[in-house]
Design brief:
The protein is of the alpha/beta class. The chain contains 14 helices and eight strands. The two termini are 34 Å apart.
Length: 322
Amino acid sequence: MKSVWLAALGAVLLAALAGCAVQPSIEVREAAELQQWQAPLNRDAPALGRIWSYPRMQWISVDELVEAVAQDDYLMLGEKHDNPDHHRIQWYLLYRLQQQQRLGALTMEMLKQEQQSLVDRAAQLQDPGLSDLKAALRWDEVKGWDWPFYGPMMQLALSQGVPLRAGNLDRARIREIYGQGEEVAALLGPDQQERVQKELEAQIIESHCGQAEGGHLKAMVRVQQNRDLSMAQAMAGLPRVSVLVAGGYHIRRDLGVPLYLLRQEPDAKLATLAMIELTEEADGGLDKALLNHQGVYDYLWFTPQMPRPDYCADWAKHSGGS
């Protein structure tokens, strides 16, 4: 019992220290630097830093991954939003593609469509610094996205003349979709829509600690699907490799953005890479983890884990009682 209590205390202290410390830059130009892990948990896991390729059904090197995705039309990078290692990997991959002159475009979940005009004006700036770019995008008005995690990626794209696109829905559009009952079944087809609907409902119920139901649940599914559709439309038709940075769930081949993009371009060469946090359970059953993600992603890159509170332990507090 004492060891469990000490472990929990250690996670809390690490989280507190991470919040107080100055965040290191996500700009990583050498693959070896990616091994300087920032997330604190499970750094000793045997699979740490390894990359699994489903197309080849084997572990591959960083260079082999870069060589493979550089040949694709679309590349989707799935993250845990609060994990600094995921953003370091993303920046590194964008940098490597840019070095090969294969970075065609960048679309970001973190930008709403209403911000595209700001992005377009920022693209006219001459060699903008991060602070200049932050001001131009009015980032302080954006809630929930950590500038040190995303600013350098946008700066990399704009500094090289790479198109930057806002992938997410406007707030007004989200309210409209939530309230009007608009469906996207016609885009997926009824059979596929039924499957996706059920799986998304199950995921939303789980992520909301079993508290989502009825019309509220169906509205959240509508918003999720329309967000995925919005990201697919934003990155479609752009210069290749057209890259998307989004949450890991959005880039799932069986549920997310790839469904809508491939419906528009059935013959497109598309790759999805998810950064997967190693938990003690996941590392202990690595074969099971690889099996569970087959058909979901094309590549997995295993990283340490960030400490997080148990929101379901006090649902009323975190949900505001709703």
